[in-house]
Specification:
Elements: H1 2-32, H2 43-73, H3 75-93, H4 96-107, H5 110-113, H6 119-122, E1 128-134, E2 138-145, E3 148-159, E4 162-171, E5 174-186, E6 189-200, H7 206-236
Helix pairs in contact: 4-7
């Protein structure tokens, strides 16, 4: 008997819950549902809808026509843009940007070091006819390498509180390569990081010269690292005897 009463109560509660859910869903559905919009039955709305369709077609056609005009007008510029991307990619793959940075960081102080008695020791690249010049926001170092006249110029600029510069390489007084760099100062040492390639001229011998000078610097750095390593090993010899 008690079981029957319990089941009856549970059944009533279940029915109440179902009804509550049905009532809640019906109320919210009613608020969210809109009657189907029958524009064809309302001449005024039909006229506005037709006008909107006309405007949409006019906008699409006008924009497309303008795009075609630009494509035709700047057809040559598009080819130059593709060329820029191709040469920029080649410069990065060949590490020409890194070579220019490393060479500049090596030689930017050469004109000052000319006055030192040991000038023959620091001129690791065997450069000749080294000169420098200063302008308002630029500094240049000119030199001869293998009878080739070269000049590197750094033009500094400030962007949103950050220090940037343009490094330009000149061969026979003609700019042949340029990169934009961000500049970071760490422990009184300036580090340049290439952001983009700004100029690349497919002429002259400058790419090979950059890579050759860059190679010499890398050799010297490798030798110095080995000397430090083996010098330290000799120091530790007595401390780590077998």
């Amino acid at each position: 008997m008690d079981i029957d009463i319990g089941l009856t109560i549970l059944f009533v509660l279940f029915i109440c819950v179902l009804y509550g859910v049905y009532w809640y869903a019906k109320k919210h559905k009613k608020g969210n549902n809109l009657l189907p919009l029958r524009v064809s039955e309302d001449p005024y709305l039909q006229e506005v809808a037709s006008f909107k369709e006309k405007i949409d077609k006019s906008v699409a056609a006008t924009v497309r026509q303008h795009e075609q005009e630009l494509e035709h007008r700047y057809e040559n510029d598009a080819a130059h843009l593709h060329r820029k991307e191709r040469l920029s990619q080649f410069a990065r793959i060949s590490e020409l940007d890194k070579a220019l940075i490393i060479i500049w960081e090596e030689i930017e102080h050469y004109p000052i070091w000319l006055e030192r008695d040991d000038s023959d020791k620091w001129n690791k690249l065997s450069l000749e006819a080294i000169n420098s010049s200063n302008n308002e926001d630029s500094y240049s170092v000119e030199f001869l390498y293998d009878s080739q006249q070269l000049k590197i110029t750094e033009k500094t600029q400030s962007k949103t509180g950050e220090l940037n510069s343009i490094l330009s390489l000149f061969e026979n007084n003609i700019e042949v390569f340029a990169i934009e760099c961000s500049i970071n100062a760490i422990d009184e040492k300036t580090n340049h990081i290439c952001q983009q390639i700004c100029a690349f001229k497919e002429r002259g011998n400058w790419p090979k010269t950059l890579l050759e000078l860059y190679g010499q610097i890398r050799i010297e750095e490798g030798k110095s690292a080995d000397e430090v390593k083996y010098f330290r090993a000799n120091e530790f010899k007595s401390s780590f005897e077998g």
